[in-house]
Design a protein that fits this description.
About 25% of the residues are buried. It is built from six helices and no strands. The model has no long low-confidence stretch (mean pLDDT about 85). About 45% of the residues lie in helices and about 0% in strands. It has one domain. It is globular, with a radius of gyration of 14 Å. The structure holds iron/sulfur cluster. The site of iron/sulfur cluster has 13 residues, from helix 1 and helix 2. Iron/sulfur cluster (SF4) binds next to helix 1 and helix 2.
């Protein structure tokens, strides 16, 4: 894992000692993985890395693959996710909150507001 080439954050990962399969879960087990992520001191670095590498499977940075796909679709022109996650964008600000975001709901609402009636 790297964010702009820096991999040092991975040493502080809350999942560093978890079994490798612990992040590649489905259904209710994703909730447990997300809880660990939201206690992780390097969650934003992890999320930036997952978005930059377009990691397909698993819970990374507190987001499921479905949530990350929605973000990538909503922001196709972002090239530096680490910077974007620190920006004033309303979704980025929400993602920095120490609680699981309602990212799918929010992105759907913003996409619906862009549609012509
Ligand atoms: S945010 Fe989650 S997946 Fe990422 S390093 Fe922390 S615990 Fe692991």
């Amino acid at each position: 894992m790297s964010v702009n080439g820096d991999q040092t954050w991975a040493a502080e990962a809350a999942c560093a000692s978890a079994p490798p399969d612990a992040l590649f879960v489905r259904g209710a087990a994703q909730r447990d993985a997300r809880i660990r992520c939201f206690d992780c001191p390097v969650r934003m670095e992890c999320l930036a890395d997952a978005l930059e590498s377009k990691t397909t499977f698993g819970v990374w940075g507190g987001l499921t693959e479905r949530e990350r796909r929605a973000l990538l679709r909503q922001y196709p022109n972002v090239e530096d996710w680490d910077s974007w996650l620190g920006s004033d964008d309303v979704t980025a600000r929400e993602l920095r909150l120490p609680v699981a975001p309602r990212i799918i709901t929010r992105l759907r609402q913003s996409q619906a507001s862009l549609r012509v009636p």
